[in-house]
Design a protein that fits this description.
By secondary structure, the chain is mainly α. Helices cover 69% and strands 0% of the residues. The N and C termini lie far apart (60 Å).
Length: 177
């Protein structure tokens, strides 16, 4: 079996060089600044989704609103976890997570929705989840093997976004709309 590891002395020497870069070593193959920018767009998307789901949770009314509102709240909480993961990864890459409300809607891939009709809320949430699925899929493909840590995080988020898309689809299917 061929040797594939760099000798220990070289590894130690590289680790001491550019120590101020923290976890970013010569093995990092992506454009760090571009990854941070893309992650900030993903962060904005998650923040808009949190706000949309929270609004839907608090404004959902009607005979069947209870279970649907509970689903909205669960999704809002899970989107908050995604936002936290993304913000942490941005800081690990020595960037700054952009929580500035100024321009949040324009940085987001998903749209905010102010529907009052329960089924319109469900439809808009499904659209937003489909946007997130497309966005995360493209980000994952773009990263490839250049930043496996970010890619794995995005793959985990993508899996949950796919679950989120399945929930409103089930609601729409049971209502026949």
């Amino acid at each position: 079996m061929a040797d594939f590891l760099t000798d220990v002395e070289t590894l130690r020497e590289r680790a001491r060089a550019n120590i101020e870069q923290g976890p970013i070593t010569s093995a990092y193959g992506a454009d760090r600044e571009r990854v941070i920018a893309v992650l900030n767009e993903a962060l904005a998307t998650e923040l808009v989704c949190i706000l949309r789901y929270k609004r839907h949770y608090y404004t959902a009314t009607g005979l069947n609103a209870g279970p649907v509102a509970a689903e909205f709240l669960q999704h809002a909480n899970e989107e908050q976890m995604h936002a936290d993961q993304i913000a942490l990864r941005i800081t690990q890459l020595q960037g700054e997570p952009n929580f500035d409300p100024e321009g949040l809607a324009t940085r987001s891939h998903a749209e905010y929705d102010a529907s009052l009709d329960l089924l319109d809320m469900v439809r808009e949430d499904l659209v937003a989840e489909r946007v997130a699925i497309e966005s995360y899929s493209e980000m994952i493909a773009w990263l490839g093997s250049n930043d496996s840590t970010t890619r794995r995080m995005l793959e985990d988020i993508l899996a949950m976004e796919e679950e989120h898309a399945n929930d409103p689809l089930g609601i729409l299917e049971t209502t026949g709309r």
